[in-house]
Amino acid sequence: xxxxxxxxxxxxxxxDRFAAAHxxxxxxxxxxWGELKAGFGWEVQRxxxxxxxxxxxxxxVLYRRLPGGLGRLAYVPRGPLVDWGxxxxxxxxxxxxxxxxxxxxxxxxxxxxxxxxxPVWRERLAAGGLAPSPLGGVQPRRTLVVDLxxxxxxxxxxxxxxxxxxxxxxxxxxxxxxEGGEADLPAFHRLMAATAARDRFxxxxxxxxxxxxRLFVPRGWARLLLAEVEGExxxxxxxxxxxxxxxYFYGASGDAHREKMPNYLLQWEAMRWARSxxxxxxxxxxxxxxxxxxxxxxxxxxxxxxxxxYRFKRGFGGRLxxxxxxxxxxxxxxxxxxxxxxxxxxxxxxx
Length: 351
Fold this sequence. Notes:
This protein is of the alpha+beta class. The chain has twelve helices and 14 strands. The protein folds into two domains: 156 residues, Gcn5-related N-acetyltransferase (GNAT) (Aminopeptidase), CATH 3.40.630.30; 181 residues, Gcn5-related N-acetyltransferase (GNAT) (Aminopeptidase, 3-Layer(aba) Sandwich).
C-alpha cells in the first residue's frame, strides 16, 4: 500500500483533480475558492496526505491574521476531504494539518467538515483532538437539499404546489431566464445592492462577485443566470456545481415586477442547469438552525436572520440537513483563550 506522507506542494491542477474526484467533493475545497478568498485578505495552503505520489486525503486551509496581535486563524471550510470511516487516516491528516497550521503561526485550527450531525462523526473528530467550537460555525449549519434525480416532472412534484404555480406564473407573465456573461455583472451588482438594502443583509463588494465569476464560470463550475421582463433584468443568481452536487450561494432581485415571481423561475432554471451537468442534489444553502416543526410553526411571522428566506426556500421541497458544525483544535492554548474571550466580548469578529 505504501507509506502515508504529508505534503503541501501539490500544484493547483493536481489539487483540483483530487478535490473534484473525491467522494465528498465540495466547491469550498476547490482551488478557485481558495483563489477567491486570497483576493480578500486570506492566505491559502493545501495540505495533502499522499500515498505513492497520489493524494488520498487533504484539506484546503484558509489563514487570516487576527486583530490585536493574537496570531492567525487556520480555517478549513467544508473539509477536510478524507475517508471519515478510516480513523487512522483521519488522525494522521489532522496531525498534519495541525503541524502545517502551527508552522504558519496559527492560534487555532477550525474545521467545518461536510458531515451530518451524528455521534459517530463526533467521535471521529474528538479522537483527533478537536472539540466543538464555542464560537459557532462560519457556514450555515442547516440547509435544504433538493433531490434532482429522476425526471423534471418528479423534481417539480417534490415542490409545494404554490411554488410550482409561481414557476408557471412567471413564464406566463413574460419572465424569461438567460445565462449571463461578464457584461451582465453590473446588473447583478445593482440587483444585489437593492436586495441588501431592502432585506437588510450584508453583501460582498462588486469586486468579489466579479472575481467569483471569472474563477468559476469559465471552468463550468458556476453560472450566472438573469431573469428579465421585456429585456429588463429583474432578478439574478449565481449557482455553483461540482457534480453530483450544486449550490445556490448568491441571489438578488429588484423592486420592479416582483409580482411576476421571477425568483421562482430563476431557481428552477438553475436546477435544470445543475441537472444538465449530472447533479443529483441542489443545496439551497442556509435556513434557520431549527427543527422542522419550529420552522413550519414560525416562518410566517419571523423575518430575522435566515428566517426571511426560509419561506421562499421551503417551497422547493428538499430534505432538511444539519451539519456537524465547526470544531476547534487549539494550537496555542493561551492565545486561543484570549481569542475566544475577545470574540464573546465583540472586540474581535470571528471568520
